[in-house]
Write a structure and sequence with these properties.
By secondary structure, the chain is of the alpha+beta class. About 25% of the residues lie in helices and about 30% in strands. Strands 1, 2, 3, 4, 9, 10, 11 and 12 form an 8-stranded antiparallel β-sheet that branches. Strands 7-6-5-8 form a 4-stranded antiparallel β-sheet, with no helix packed on it.
Length: about 180
């Protein structure tokens, strides 16, 4: 094989590698910008579901094609920081908490994601009617959570930027979020 043919082959190989790397970077940028992103859980308001310092991947695309559902763990965009909370009340729902039980539209809501201790430390509130295009959110650790009851207020649909899907850090705690 001549030196010229070898040089052309080597040049083509570098060009192919360059294209592959460029496409991979473009794809990663697209996915990070429009589909998936990460967030770090700050504080203990979502214990036992999420722990302080865990990194979660959230789906940014889901709420462009669907609405948040009761029980979704969502990322809420705020000017200073983002919050991770669970959707409890949907637009038009009436929410109240009495005697260690959560009621939505007059029916007791059974929760498998919250501890009995957290229920015992949740004070009575409501009934509260959730306005149209707003959501009522709470942390799973109700005793210490800043949420729709005490500081965050009702959440605009536009402020919900995604649904938490997976815990990816620490590595030994990889799991889907339920």
């Amino acid at each position: 094989m001549s030196k010229l043919v070898k040089k052309d082959k080597q040049k083509n190989e570098w060009l192919e590698w360059g294209k592959a790397i460029f496409i991979a970077i473009l794809l990663a940028f697209f996915l990070r910008t429009f589909v998936f992103a990460t967030s770090i859980v700050e504080g203990e308001s979502m214990v036992p579901t999420l722990q302080d310092g865990e990194r979660v991947i959230f789906n940014k695309l889901i709420y462009l094609v669907d609405e948040p559902e009761r029980g979704d763990v969502v990322i809420i965009k705020r000017p200073v920081k983002n919050y991770v909370k669970r959707v409890i009340g949907l637009p038009g729902d009436t929410v109240k908490f009495r005697n260690h039980h959560l009621y939505i539209n007059g029916e007791q809501y059974e929760k498998t994601f919250i501890s009995v201790d957290a229920l015992n430390h949740t004070g009575n509130f409501g009934p509260i009617e959730v306005p149209d295009d707003k959501y009522f959110v709470m942390g799973d650790n109700r005793a210490i959570s800043k949420d729709s009851r005490n500081g965050l207020g009702f959440i605009n649909a536009d402020d919900i930027v995604g649904r938490s899907e997976f815990v990816i850090y620490p590595f030994d705690e990889w799991s889907m979020i339920k």
